[in-house]
Amino acid sequence: MSSDTPPVAKKVRTERIHHGDTVIDEYAWLSNKEDPDTTAYLEAENDFLKKETAHLSELQEQVFQEIKARTQETDLSVPSRKGAWWYYTRTEEGKQYAVSCRVPADSDAPPVITPGEPLDREQVILDGNELAGDSPFFSVGASSVTPDGSMLAYSTDYKGDERFTLRFKNLETGEVLPDEITDIFYGGAWSADGSAFFYTRVDDAWRPFQVYRHTLGTQEDVLVYEESDERYWVGIGLTRSERYLVLSAGSKITSEVRVLDAMEPAGEFRVVRPRKTGVEYGVEHAGDFFYVLHNENAENFELATAPLDDPGSWTSLTAHRDDTRLLEIDAFSDHAVVHFRREGLTGLRVLPYSSAGGTWRERVEASERNAYEIDFPEPLYDVGPAGNPEFTTTRLRLGYTSMVTPPSVYDYELDSHELILLKQRPVLGGYDPADYEQFRDWATAEDGTKIPVSIVKRKETARPAPTVLYGYGSYETSIDPGFSIARLSLLDRGFVFAVAHVRGGGELGRRWYEEGKLTRKRNTFTDFVAAAGHMKESGWSERVIARGGSAGGLLMGAATNLAPELFAGVVAEVPFVDALNTILDPSLPLTVIEWDEWGDPLHDPDVYAYMKSYSPYENVDGRAYPPILAITSLNDTRVLYHEPAKWIARLRATAGGGPFLLKTEMGAGHGGRSGRYDAWREEAFALAWIIERGTS
């Protein structure tokens, strides 16, 4: 194929019949990754993309240099205390990946950090640059140190397919042990004595379904648990107290947790409470009792307690509130911290334990009576616990950011209630937050629901202005108001950046999520269209460029089908645009698990008809569509590359307008390119395309 003209995908008529309806998919052949025609087509698309965007190369390089110039390339994270060590990561100018390090802990206060200067007595635990070598892709899936600090378990992926190889490193000698385990999933957990490491494996549908126990120095690993229900994922972790191993099995709507004394890794896990459809719960060990965060008869979750010898017996502590979604509980020896969400913002609530003694239940009930929330000054922000591995501590480490405040790390002194700023991410080149302003606005959906929109711009930017409108809206995932160095390249060119907090996300609690899933999924798309219309009608925007990725890519495709005239351009990254065909095929990764999110079109004709009514690929028509840039990766295991490839092919064959461009990373996964400089270049490419759409 010539790169001078758009590639034309061949049409091969493929028919499938579901519930009496014939589905014709003329581009289904693109799903065969091994077919040379598929590779040739994707490469032809990449060649065409290069030609079509060649005129943006200077702007792309300029934006890349802006991102690079604003970034402190040689930097250190704030060290976190764990046992006898302070752990941190650092980056070095010119190197793609972070270096994990530690230094001995001589006091309770974290060591003073100076960017560019390694800390005294530094020990390198894991050097991502050394491990990556010349590989075009590299990712770490697990990095876990034994409770005594002597051994590291780490796993690596060199393809982007999220299949990791697990290895073990003696941190006292630097020796990498001969133990090597391939084809594992993310994460894992050590036993309390460091003799055994627990990890998970995935099935053919990319579902983590087995937990294994590896004893160091042995060859045969033991299968600890296998989940037969295809809707459930499994995971394994060690409590902060290092007292219990926690094995969780969960679907989108139901949980089941097992616990095991971490000093007895060969023992039997016991069920906290058997699964009950629709009931989600999590368990946190708090010394002489468990905290349980659950949603039984509590839509936004409530906090309960349970005795160690009867963890399934729950007593309510923090009652359910309609306006507050409880997100997680972190337990420590002398206090607990609840991370919550209210009115579209996150927050932290401290439960201090009484020093007056009494039973554990009396102490924890007193903590609820004495609980308080930490205040923050900005109208929009995002806050959460960050790096609190120690069970016994008088400080809470938290992360804070807003649309104008760079990510900041604080220690909150529990005794004095003082917030101590440890570090704010440097933004070089004279960045001043006072030059920018952020707003919360509200759009009105077609059913009258008020949709929050978070907005940021330079103060001197006149309205209306070109606008990037970002959206996601699935899985109760919230797109909180955060900072971005790369975004400054838009704002400083007179753009407005906005996030539409559409239903299907979790910004306004569990009900907000429920109103944007299953047979109410259309609300997600119409909310976004309403937000785009509001940005124009209220005078914020003259040209709106929509952007979203993964399930947010589904949002991009569906919203564009609903109102193509609203958008001056669309960037869809690893987009889930062939939703109906994917969710109809239980052999594909994640499909059965996803039925709780989207419904089951394979067995339910009503769900089939509903999904067919909004699936982007199914609903492309002959109207004039805006320019669309779809970005995908060949090794993506979550949203397979063929979805955007088929979508672009059908747009080009059916729709007017455009152009329609496809960019395929031939050696990456769901997150795109792995090195930070490579990632900056990819972002610069997308931003250059957006800038042209907004200003031309």
Concise synopsis of the structure shown:
Residues 483-691 form the Peptidase S9 prolyl oligopeptidase catalytic domain. Helix 2 (57-70) crosses helix 13 and helix 7 crosses helix 8. The chain is built from 13 helices and 41 strands.
Low-confidence stretches: none
Rg on CA atoms, Å: 25 Å
Name the overall outline.
globular
CATH architecture annotation of the domain at 37-68 and 441-695: 3-Layer(aba) Sandwich
The helical percent reads: 10-25%
Mean pLDDT: 94
Strand content bin: 25-35%
Going across the biggest sheet, name each strand in turn: 32-33-35-34-36-37-39-41
CATH topology of the domain at 37-68 and 441-695: Rossmann fold
Largest sheet: 8 strands, mixed
Q: What's the CATH first level of the domain at 37-68 and 441-695?
A: Alpha Beta
Going by CATH, the homologous superfamily of the domain at 37-68 and 441-695 would be Alpha/Beta hydrolase fold, catalytic domain
